[in-house]
Amino acid sequence: MMTRRELLGAAASLPFLTAPSWAETKPAVITRSIPSSGELLPVIGMGSSRTFDVAPNSQMIAQLTEVVRLFFAGHGAMIDSSPMYGQAESALGAVLEKLGMPQALFAATKVWTYGTEAGIEQMQESSRRMRVPAFDLMQIHNLRDWKLHLPTLRRWKEEGKIRYLGITTSHQRYHPELEEIMRTEALDFVQFSYNIENRLAEERLLPIAADRGIATIINRPYQRGALFAKSRGRALPTLAQELGCESWVQFYLKWIIGHPAVTVLIPATSKPKHMRDNMGANVGQVPDFTQRAEMLKIFEGL
Asked: How does pLDDT run across 130-145, given as a tens digit for each residue?
């Protein structure tokens, strides 16, 4: 029997098929391919920084379980975590177990320590905490000791312990070093911040990723919530409605999705209603170059 990933890969190679007239029409899920493999991923993923830092036996687990259930119901796949996020990996493990370890899961975490052996031990512990036998993606968090960890990740990929490797940062001060790594090292993924207010990644990181065939994961899509201070109480513009956006959340996410070098966004939330809103951007129309320019003009005029 073919796995879900094999089915997705096979479907990607088939000609476009029109749904029969009797079929219920639903907005298509927006997917992007991982350049190093061609595997398709839904464009809206899920982060866990701050939002999932609770004990796995906490009363919050019930609420977080509903958050993750809604994520998969909205056709999400990538869930991203890190040992840096307190108890997030353990909380995610408890939630995923309650949900029966959904088949759609694309599990991603990071190594965030110094030294080769310490890194191996930390990654093994992350596997136990998230209750996944092998991660789809392992990343080096904030470039920490990357020259030592990268050979380990390459070896683990060759051995089938992980499927993809990458490197991350959320800090502008690391961009010059990250650029050099992207130019010189073979990476499957790179993760950094990008949103309608913080557009620095457009200058160099996104173009390098496109040129080098590196998938991109976008963190802090709402500038840690700062974007909503500008749009709170404002009516959605007509363009947002034309793009199928039902909220400013979806407006901000769709603007990012419109960049062709973006692969996956990982907004984080601990609230079911916010997850529903996030997943609304996982389907429908993607803004083109002209529409993105108009969206930026609207935002700058708020």
From this structure: 999 999 999 999 999 9
